[in-house]
Design goal:
- The chain has 423 residues and is an alpha+beta fold.
- It folds into two domains: 248 residues, Creatine Amidinohydrolase (Alpha-Beta Complex), CATH 3.90.230; 139 residues, Creatinase/prolidase N-terminal domain (Creatine Amidinohydrolase, Chain A, domain 1, 3-Layer(aba) Sandwich).
- It contains twelve helices and 17 strands.
- The strands form five sheets. A six-stranded mixed beta sheet has the order 4-3-2-1-5-6, sandwiched between helices. Strands 7, 8, 9 and 10 form a four-stranded antiparallel beta sheet that branches.
Length: 423
């Protein structure tokens, strides 16, 4: 995509910062509507390949193997990313139980409100054992009976980590003879290493978000608020064929990793920290960019370059077999060598260097001190060792990467410089 308006993709030819906005601010709104960058966007999803039924079957077989290895008789899932991961069913959560029991031996068992059965059958791709319950009946009895019918009369049941307490509590009261433990050894270990099909979907999500960024940043104007920018970025993602958005924190609000509730209007010289992404077939992107609206100061350039150096250090440390905590330590050394306190103290980076990503925006495994788990092929992480200058501003450059046999590989290419946010 080429955005002719304001020659945004030729930022390197502009003066430092995002000086291309200067002339645009004086143009009339009718002209802006005619060459609105969002109007130049078109869907990028025509070549998307969803996860196949065969891959989901393989996932369930791996889950069964892990259940046997961890002495689990079954795992219980309610709607959310893990249910979608294994079965492809995408249901909302309410006070009514909709769930699936995946046993180590035997077929799936679905628990469904009776009046939702028709709609449920439209989504259920695997298993035809659907146990319905009427409004005056107990869904917990249906789950307990499902255990019995699969020959589970003793042993451990794995509860997926995001199952709500009232559901877990109702099940254990109905079947107190069973033990209830975390399903993490199954669900997490299935999900942390992404397949080539998952990597492809995450790559598409990243590609789309970068295009949404380009169009959205080109529309920044003096006086805008974070709400204005959020609306623009949502529209850009929608034009590209997905649901997504980018948040913006302006000036001193950028010094808080997750921003501020204050209303701040954009003015010349402000840092603009943007963070967002989208979803493609459920798989997420997560990208941050930091620019200056107008001419950056020498200090802003220096601090931006320092944050860039920290991000680079993290990526260059990552690799097959590298403990996750080492990737977190690398950018902290950059900040300490500069003269900042180091660790998680400020000025510096107050949070982990990165998190896992996949069907959820934040997944396992974290790049954080104390996490000695070695990186493995297919693991996906964010790389975002934010630099916070308290009371002034923050700079976060975030790009996600995945581990290959040959080392880390980015989904989105990092910003080359403060006046060129896109590679």
């Amino acid at each position: 995509m080429t955005i002719k308006r304001r020659d945004f993709l030729k930022l390197g030819a502009c003066s430092a910062g995002v000086a291309l906005f200067d002339s645009a601010c004086s143009s009339n709104r009718n002209q802006r509507k005619k060459d609105d960058p969002i109007s130049q966007l078109s869907p990028m999803t025509d070549d998307v390949v969803p996860i196949s039924d065969q891959e989901r079957i393989q996932r369930m077989e791996k889950a069964r193997r892990l259940m046997r290895e961890n002495d689990l008789e079954a795992i219980y899932l309610e709607p959310g990313s893990s249910m979608f991961y294994f079965t492809g069913a995408n249901w909302w959560r309410s006070e009514r139980m909709f769930a699936v029991v995946l046993p180590a031996q035997g077929d799936l068992v679905w628990i469904c409100p009776a009046f939702e059965e028709g709609r449920a059958r439209e989504q259920i791709q695997f298993g035809d054992d659907i146990r319905t319950w009427e409004e005056h009946e107990s869904p917990y009895k249906r789950v307990a009976q499902a255990f019995m019918d699969r020959g589970i009369r003793s042993g451990k049941i794995g509860i997926e980590e995001r199952v709500r307490f009232f559901l877990f509590d109702g099940i254990r009261k109905q079947a107190p003879h069973l033990q209830y433990v975390s399903a993490d050894p199954v669900t997490v270990e299935c999900r942390v290493r992404k397949s080539s099909a998952e990597i492809a979907l995450m790559q598409k999500a990243a590609d789309i978000t970068i295009e949404a960024y380009k169009a959205s940043v080109a529309m920044l104007e003096q006086g805008m608020t974070k709400e204005d920018f959020s609306s623009i970025s949502s529209a850009a993602h929608q034009a590209l064929g997905v649901s997504g958005g980018i948040g913006a924190q302006i000036a001193e609000a950028s010094a808080s990793p997750h921003g501020s509730v204050k209303r701040i209007e954009l003015k010349k010289g402000d840092i603009v920290l943007m963070d967002g992404g989208c979803s493609v077939e459920g798989y997420r992107s997560d990208i941050s960019r930091t620019i200056v609206f107008g001419e950056p100061t020498k200090r802003q350039i220096e601090m931006w370059n320092l944050a860039k150096k920290a991000q680079t250090a993290a990526f260059e440390t990552a690799g097959l077999g590298v403990p996750c905590e080492e990737v977190d330590a690398a950018p902290r050394k950059v900040y300490k060598d500069y003269g900042f306190p180091g660790g998680y103290k400020l000025p510096g980076c107050p949070h982990r260097t990165g998190h896992g990503i996949g069907l959820d925006g934040h997944e396992w495994i974290n790049l954080v001190k104390g996490n000695k788990r070695p990186m493995e092929p297919g693991m996906c992480f964010s790389n975002e060792p934010m630099l916070v200058l308290p009371g002034k501003y923050g700079i976060r450059l975030e790009d996600c990467f995945h581990i290959t046999e040959k080392g880390p590989r980015y989904f989105s290419q990092p910003s080359p410089s403060i006046d060129q946010p896109f590679a």
